[in-house]
């Protein structure tokens, strides 16, 4: 019996994932810069929690760099440092995209959460560390989904198996 090749198989029709962690990120008010490529926003984070298979906190001062394009798509570039509860430093970064509903600004101004189901918030995270206990993160692919409110982002991060 021959093993089917990639294009002959059903591989990829469902993505096998395992929950890695949740990040609940508190953000300061953004610094905004209007540029020819779109509105740039730099969100500096306050200390925030990480829970799950990785537990600890995101250090204060990491940044979420966002470019809101004229096409309504926000391009995300995130750089943070995690310190686990057992003392391991882990670099966290992610690239992604966000599309919020047309009334998002008004809803955020009223203090509402933009629920996961009402938006498209996706991230391709990467982790880097030399700590032996978490070194497996370096060679693993991840995906993240998010939910946004004024000054706050929740990320659920999954390991792709």
Report the CATH architecture.
Answer: Beta Barrel
Residues in helix, %:
under 10%
- Total individual domains: 1
Strand order of the largest sheet: 1-4-5-7-8-10-11-12
Show unreliable segments.
none
Mean pLDDT: 93
Q: Pairing-aware structural class of the strands and helices? A: mainly beta
Instruction: Tell me the total number of β-strands.
Output: 12
| Amount of beta strand | over 45%
> So what's the overall shape?
globular
Spell the H/E element sequence. EEEEEEEEHEEEE
Task: Tell me the distance between the termini.
Answer: 25 Å
Number of helices: 1
Top-tier CATH class: Mainly Beta
Q: Compute the gyration radius: what is it?
A: 17 Å
Largest sheet: 8 strands, antiparallel, barrel
CATH topology: Porin
């Amino acid at each position: 019996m021959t093993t089917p090749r990639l294009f002959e198989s059903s591989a990829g029709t469902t993505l096998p994932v395992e929950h890695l962690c949740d990040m609940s990120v508190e953000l300061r008010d953004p610094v905004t810069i209007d540029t020819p490529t779109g509105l740039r926003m730099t969100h500096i984070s306050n200390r925030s929690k990480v829970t799950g298979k990785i537990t600890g906190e995101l250090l204060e001062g990491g940044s979420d760099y966002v470019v809101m394009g004229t096409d309504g798509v926000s391009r995300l570039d995130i750089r943070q440092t995690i310190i686990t509860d057992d003392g391991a430093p882990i670099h966290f970064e992610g690239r992604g995209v966000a599309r919020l509903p047309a009334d998002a600004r008004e809803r955020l101004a009223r203090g509402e959460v933009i629920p996961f189901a009402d938006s498209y918030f996706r991230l391709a995270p990467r982790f880097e560390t030399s700590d032996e206990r978490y070194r497996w993160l370096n060679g693993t692919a991840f995906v993240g989904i998010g939910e946004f409110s004024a000054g706050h982002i929740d990320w659920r991060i999954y390991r792709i198996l």
